[in-house]
Amino acid sequence: MDILLIILTVILIAGALNTVRSKDLVAAVISGSVVSLIASIYFYLLQAPDVALTEAAIGVGLSTIIFMITIRRTGRMEE
Amino acid sequence: MRKAIAVLFLGFIGYYLLSTFLLVPFGVVRVLEGVGLKYLQDGLQQTGAANLVTSIVVNYRGFDTLGEVTVLFLAATGMGALLYSKRPTERARQNASVIVKTGARILFPLIIILGAYVFIHGHLTPGGGFQGGAIIASGFLLMFMSYRTYHVNHVILSRVESSAGSVFVIIGLLGLAYGSSFLANILPLGTANTLFSAGVIPLIYVAVGFKVGAELTALLDTMLQTVK
Fold first, then answer.
1. Longest Cα pair distance anywhere in chain B, in angstroms?
2. Does any CB of chain B come closer than 8 Å to the CB of residue A62?
3. Rounded to whole angstroms, how far apart are CA atoms B184 and B58?
4. What ipTM goes with this model?
5. CA of A45 vs chain B CAs: smallest distance (Å)
6. For chain A, which residues make up each domain, given as ranges?
7. How far, CA to CA in Å, does B197 sit from each of B47, B125, B175, B202?
8. pLDDT tens for residues B4-40?
9. What are the extents of the domains in chain B?
10. Where on the phi/psi map is residue B222: left (φ > 0), alpha (ψ -120 to 50), or beta?
11. Could you tell me if A65 lies within 8 Å of chain B, comparing CB atoms?
């Protein structure tokens, strides 16, 4: 269990850093949704299934799509 | 000069934040103190909702939820106003493959049923109006992605949205008229842990579920119409 939590935390932090630093906005959005996914696993493990459900539906599903549509309308690379 | 002021300002804020946090001993569980303990002890008797989170969101803090719903409504309205165009862009995307289309057609009703279950049982199991609405919107998103020509009727969606919002406010006003305060629980509480219990809480959550689902679906369709 502890090993699983450590792996999840490492992926979480790496995803968050990649979201901020990446010049490719599509990669940044995908890393952001990975952060949301792992956060929702954490919420579930911390016995907050309500929050986990919201985070999974909004953070991973809808907001990723909305960002993707916006990127399609504008540009993919950050200057 | 500006940097010095900024450092001074940060130090000022940091000092007061730190002195506030130092009042709380590190690692002490404070859940069972004050208002949290009161919710845990009296929540089930007072509201009749087996899911305490729902009883806090809809009953004790119902006014906040009304504000949240209003914020979401304003955001969706602003986005629609910004992106509205008389002639929607013809979607040049190709249809998805047969496997995706068939899968979407089979999964779509199941996702809608799951969303409806989540908000109808909001007072019994984890979940509620916001979660169920988001799940329903993601079901519609699956259809938008798989079928190029799939469209929703915006007139019906806005009718659903506005009537659901009105139901929320009307239930609140009825509480003011027949009970003690805005959003007071005026219906009988019933037996806890059954579907028809907790008074007005399920009614409000069903209204919120319809409202959020309709709003997010309309928003996704409006956005998808603007891209090729």
1. 67
2. yes
3. 10
4. 0.80
5. 14
6. 2-74
7. 9, 13, 17, 8
8. 999 999 999 999 998 888 887 777 777 777 787 888 8
9. 2-226
10. alpha
11. yes
